[in-house]
Amino acid sequence: MPTPPRPSPAAKKSAAKKPSSKKPVIFGAVVVLAAGLLGFVSYRATAPDGSASGTPAAVTATEEDPEVYRELAGLARRDAGDKQAQGRTDAPVVLIEYADFQCGYCGKFARDTEPELIKRYVDDGTLRIEWRNFPIFGDASEAAARASWAAGRQGRFWAFHRAAYAEDAKEKGFGKGRLRALARQAGVKDLDRFTRDAGSAAATEAVGVDRQEAYRIGATSTPSFLVNGRPLAGAQPTAVFTQAIEAAAAEEANVGNAGDPAK
């Protein structure tokens, strides 16, 4: 991630004279801590010694600073019009996924774990899943990300997501013709509009917003996740996700009960 230019001594002196909110300072600290956490769990998730096979550091490193997790939980958009999300906007737990369509581990999560999470937690209102396009493997990843956004414009993001993460989809590539075929498979009705939308400046901007959010919090690999602000990295076993989701749901329930004298 590029390092921002340092302010000149004169700029520092001028800034020191102006009153400012503490929020940017706090958020800056949150970003630094999040970058460390996500960098650490990303390493553990891809470490050659197989340390990702059990309960990962991503789950055990959850008590360092509650302020960090509250700030990161605030990244959940909870937008009813978000085509790249599923689940109730008022769900007590939000899982944010930063992923690339060329990422084999992302495909593993999409095929092996996500359907179980939807069945167990999204359908009963406990969980909301919000997708963020995080293309990091070159032009084909970028094109697939824009195509997924374009499919979402016609309400078919999740169908496109399933098609693009099917067992053999990655090997077939993500060229223009293939992306159009995936859109057709996903039930996108207006394929000409899909092609225009995928090539539009709006698609590039939307993907850029998602990617910059991932970089800003320190994500370095795919898939990376936040579960109510707590970081997880890699296609961990389903049990790791259920543990994290249930812990977050219990925490939210405790907070609600603490605020209600009748409970």
From TrEMBL:
Protein origin, superkingdom: Bacteria
Alphabetized Pfam families for the sequence: Thioredoxin_4
Statement: the UniProt record of this protein carries the keyword Signal: yes
Keyword Amino-acid biosynthesis set for record: no
Keywords: Disulfide bond, Oxidoreductase, Redox-active center, Signal
InterPro entries: Thioredoxin-like_fold, Thioredoxin-like_sf, Thioredoxin_domain
Span of domain Thioredoxin: 41-250
Region (Disordered): 1-22
GO function term, MF aspect, one: oxidoreductase activity
Coiled-coil residue spans: none
Xref: PANTHER family: DISULFIDE BOND FORMATION PROTEIN D, GLUTATHIONE S-TRANSFERASE KAPPA
Annotated family: Belongs to the thioredoxin family. DsbA subfamily.
Protein name as annotated: DSBA oxidoreductase
Species in which this protein is naturally found: Streptomyces pratensis (strain ATCC 33331 / IAF-45CD)
